[in-house]
Every structure is written in C-alpha cells, then in structure tokens.
C-alpha cells in the first residue's frame, strides 16, 4: 500500500523553477502546501515571466493552476526580478515586489542553480 498523499505526488511533479528563456522580468517565490490532513509537506517554487505587468499576475496564474483539484494551497512569500542571459549563461536575481515584499533571493538562487547547473547564478538585494 502506498502511503504517499495525493498532494505529495502532485508536488513531486512540480518544476522547482520555471522562468522565461531570456530577458529581464518579474518573479515570485511561491510556497506550495498540502491541504490534506496530517500532511505538512511543502515546497518552494520560482516562477518568472516577462508577460507579467505585476508580480501578482504571475502568482494568480500559477496558484490558480496548482490549486485546482483542492489538494494544494499556495502562498506567495516574496518577489523580485531576474535577468536571464542565456548566451553568457548567467542569471542575476535582485530587487523586490511592492505587493509581496522581497523574496529570499538565496532560496531562489538555489532553485535556479539546480535548474541551470551550467550557469553562473548570482543575487543581491539592490534595485527594484
């Protein structure tokens, strides 16, 4: 018998980082929780896209998709900006979100390093 919850199975298949292939854009750090009783599993995910006018645009779209089915719950734990330069294989994380505050860029950087292992990934708290 499998003891893994539906939420845990869903979380195992969520990409930890998903960003646009290049450019400068807003990003959010989202904590995804299980809604199932007795399951305190959670993961942090990074989402960054150039189409978003506001950080909340990204959070609203991602959380709506993940919360379908009622097994998962999302919480935005901050935001910032990402500069992605695929030709130089560099990603720089910086800034903050007016609505959600500054994400923990160190956490974001670790998620991006795992997704882009051959990149130089840096961060600082400067800028907006």
From TrEMBL:
Identify the EC number(s): 3.9.1.3
Q: Which GO terms describe its molecular function?
A: protein histidine phosphatase activity
Instruction: Enumerate the Pfam families for this protein.
Output: Ocnus
Please list the residues that make up the active site: 55
- Report the principal subcellular site: cytoplasm
The catalysed reaction is: N(pros)-phospho-L-histidyl-[protein] + H2O = L-histidyl-[protein] + phosphate; N(tele)-phospho-L-histidyl-[protein] + H2O = L-histidyl-[protein] + phosphate
Question: What family does the Swiss-Prot or TrEMBL record give for this protein?
Answer: Belongs to the janus family.
* Complex and partners: Monomer.
Protein name (record): 14 kDa phosphohistidine phosphatase
Its lineage reads:
Eukaryota, Metazoa, Chordata, Craniata, Vertebrata
